[in-house]
């Protein structure tokens, strides 16, 4: 069973040894995700540091 | 292994040189002749110095063309159509990189190019050369008309939205920022270095001819409008198309991801580039130099139904020679990526 990226909807297969709280990256949109649950697989967007972007 | 014998007509230009660079290393290709009227008898490396030691080929005159399997025409616009019968007598298959056979409608050709087409009855014989849209037709085609560079980036960026009827038909605005190689290798006062260097020059705010191709490929039988502008900027290769469209219904970014993934998920040369962090969050032409990729990104305006779609290509590759070779590979049943595996340079 796959987790769904909350940002782009990509199906993400968690590693067999994934643990709750682990940070992973979505292979499609590159968003850093936090594993909320392993069974069932669930991820959420990890908090990001605000950047000075596009001044 | 039997090799496909190809010749390039008009090989001294930037597009012809780029195509030659690719074909020289294609495992299924034997290059018969490369023609140039200005450089007949000269080694090709005199014009394309990057090919020094890669080949000892010399330019021939087009009048010396011998029979081959495929002719690539890299001529200025309004040249191929005048000698198309001769080219057809040389090779059973032709890939024309000029604009002469891109439009299917004679009236549209005359409207956008300002003169009558010499052989309008042949327009429908040519398959429009964007593989992602016309792959099946290319498999059995004898004649392919390679798409315009600005048109390629714009069409690929917007195709999934128009195909799925997701955007208003009359409100599309496209702004392309383009490098100097789009202008070819013929010099003019505007290309003189002190004048061209550092410019942000609006060279075609309206009436750009590539608009006609965009309309042709995105209309799906409807009456659509595309408002296209082009700006010359201080790069040599590459272009960035920033397209503004307005969604008919309220879609979330995740929905739009799905639409693009459905359209292009299996495409070898299209990448969705849209990231929340890092330096290159959206498509960046400089990373695509020498590659056949079209990178596409998007961002939905949180305060309106506007969707900004950003696409980038190397105009000489996915916008010309690379795309033509991709079409050639499809025509002959080769792996589409053959000869086009280069992934670009970083940093550059």
UniProtKB/TrEMBL annotation, chain A:
Transmembrane segments: none
Family matches, as Gene3D superfamilies: 2.20.28.160
Domain of life: Bacteria
Pfam family, any one: Zn_ribbon_LysW
InterPro entries, per database record: LysW
Protein name: Lysine biosynthesis protein LysW
Organism: Stygiobacter electus
Automatic annotation (TrEMBL), chain B:
GO biological process: L-arginine biosynthetic process; lysine biosynthetic process
Domain spans labelled Semialdehyde dehydrogenase NAD-binding: 5-141
InterPro entries on file: AGPR (IPR050085), AGPR_AS (IPR023013), AGPR_dimerisation_dom (IPR058924), AGPR_type-1 (IPR000706), LysY (IPR037535), NAD(P)-bd_dom_sf (IPR036291), Semialdehyde_DH_NAD-bd (IPR000534)
Record's keyword terms, sorted: Amino-acid biosynthesis, Cytoplasm, Lysine biosynthesis, NADP, Oxidoreductase
Gene3D superfamilies xrefs: Dihydrodipicolinate Reductase, domain 2, NAD(P)-binding Rossmann-like Domain
SUPFAM superfamilies reported for this sequence: Glyceraldehyde-3-phosphate dehydrogenase-like, C-terminal domain (SSF55347), NAD(P)-binding Rossmann-fold domains (SSF51735)
EC number: 1.2.1.38
Pathway it works in: Amino-acid biosynthesis
Active-site residues from the entry: 149
GO molecular function: N-acetyl-gamma-glutamyl-phosphate reductase activity; NAD binding; NADP+ binding
Matches recorded under SMART domains: Semialdhyde_dh (SM00859)
NCBIfam families the record matches: argC
Name this polypeptide is given: N-acetyl-gamma-glutamyl-phosphate reductase
Gene: argC
């Amino acid at each position: 069973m796959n987790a769904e990226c909350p940002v782009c909807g990509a199906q993400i297969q968690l590693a067999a040894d994934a643990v709750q709280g682990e940070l992973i990256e979505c292979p499609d949109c590159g968003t850093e995700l936090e594993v909320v649950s392993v069974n069932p697989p669930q991820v959420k967007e990890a908090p990001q540091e605000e950047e000075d972007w596009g001044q | 292994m039997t090799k496909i014998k190809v010749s390039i007509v008009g090989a001294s230009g930037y597009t012809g040189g780029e195509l030659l660079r690719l074909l020289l290393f294609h495992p299924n290709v034997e290059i018969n002749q490369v023609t140039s009227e200005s450089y007949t008898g000269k080694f090709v490396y005199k014009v394309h110095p990057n090919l020094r030691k890669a080949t000892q080929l010399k330019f021939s005159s087009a009048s010396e063309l011998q029979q081959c399997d495929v002719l690539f025409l890299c001529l200025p616009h309004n040249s191929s159509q005048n000698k198309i019968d001769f080219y057809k007598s040389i090779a059973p298959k032709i890939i024309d990189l000029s604009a002469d056979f891109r439009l299917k409608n004679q009236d549209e050709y005359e409207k956008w190019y300002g003169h009558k087409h010499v052989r309008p009855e042949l327009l429908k014989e040519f398959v429009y050369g964007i593989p992602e849209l016309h792959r099946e037709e290319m498999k059995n085609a004898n004649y392919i008309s390679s798409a315009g560079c600005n048109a390629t980036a714009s069409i690929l960026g917007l195709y999934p939205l128009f195909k799925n009827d997701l955007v208003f038909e009359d409100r599309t605005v496209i702004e392309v920022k383009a490098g100097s190689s789009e202008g070819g290798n013929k010099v003019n006062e505007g290309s003189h270095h002190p004048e061209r260097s550092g410019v942000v020059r609006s060279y075609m705010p309206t009436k750009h001819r590539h608009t006609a191709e965009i309309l042709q490929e995105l209309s799906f039988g409807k009456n659509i409008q595309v408002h296209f502008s082009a700006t010359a900027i201080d790069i040599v290769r590459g272009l960035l198309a920033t397209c503004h469209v307005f969604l008919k219904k309220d879609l979330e970014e995740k929905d739009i991801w799905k639409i693009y993934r459905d359209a292009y998920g299996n495409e070898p040369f299209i990448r969705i580039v849209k990231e929340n962090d890092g330096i290159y969050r959206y498509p960046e032409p400089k990373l695509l130099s020498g590659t056949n990729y079209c990178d596409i990104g998007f961002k939905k305006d949180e305060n309106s139904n506007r969707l900004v779609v950003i696409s980038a290509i190397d105009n000489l590759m996915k916008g010309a020679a690379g795309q033509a070779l991709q079409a050639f590979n499809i025509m002959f049943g080769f792996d589409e990526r053959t000869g086009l595996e280069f992934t670009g340079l970083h940093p550059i």
